[in-house]
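Appendix C reproduces, verbatim, an entry submitted by the partner laboratory led by Prof. M.T., so that reviewers can inspect both the input and the predicted structure.
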Amino acid sequence: MHSPMARPIFENRYDAGRKLAEKLVDYSSGSAVVLAIPNGGVAVALNVALALGADLDLIISRKIPLPLSPEGGFGSVTDDGTIILDETMVKKAGLNESQINYQVSQVRANIRHRSLLYHRDRRPVVVSGRTVIIVDDGLASGYTMRAAVTSVRHRNPEKVIVAVPVGPEQVVKEMESVADRVVSCAVGSMPRFYVADFYRYWHDMSDDEVLHCLDEWRMRRYQPKIEFSGENEGKGGKV
């Protein structure tokens, strides 16, 4: 689906996960691994993993914020230390090595905290020799996903699939150069692209919601009949 203008096409992240799962039926043998990028990607990935009968785990990839404009970023860092910089933005912002290193160190500290919170005492899922599906709630610049793909490649998967409900057309095409396959429900081509515009109900997911999704997957993954999560979620509920 190509969307010439921003309009809601998903009720919430759970709905996006249901629709994305329909595009991933080729991987429903139960041998795939779904890696969610927190926070927002976890609610999407929950329904993908339940539908495919796949293992679910996290890959933490965080934006490196610009010093004077934290809403913007100049790359991403992952939980294994992989760094992908947007060199164009680095030059545009006039960042020196000291500024870059400081921002990266701050993000790494945040990642360490979140990794301890999310993983607790559990070991990461083994991905070597397996098809890995990396899920987020959408693409923007693509650097967070690009860093995640690069990180996962270090773990010797058989294939890496990028799966997102929506992303800018150009970024989706660029992602095809780093992943073995890119799956999306829709692409946008607006001059100013915002992932949230494609969701009717949207909010920043909390750490508690991330943990709830992981607990729900562990509780329901072996049920003989899988029902999707978030069927009745909407305004005022979890998204």
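The chain has a mean pLDDT of 91. Additional entries are available on request from the coordinating office.
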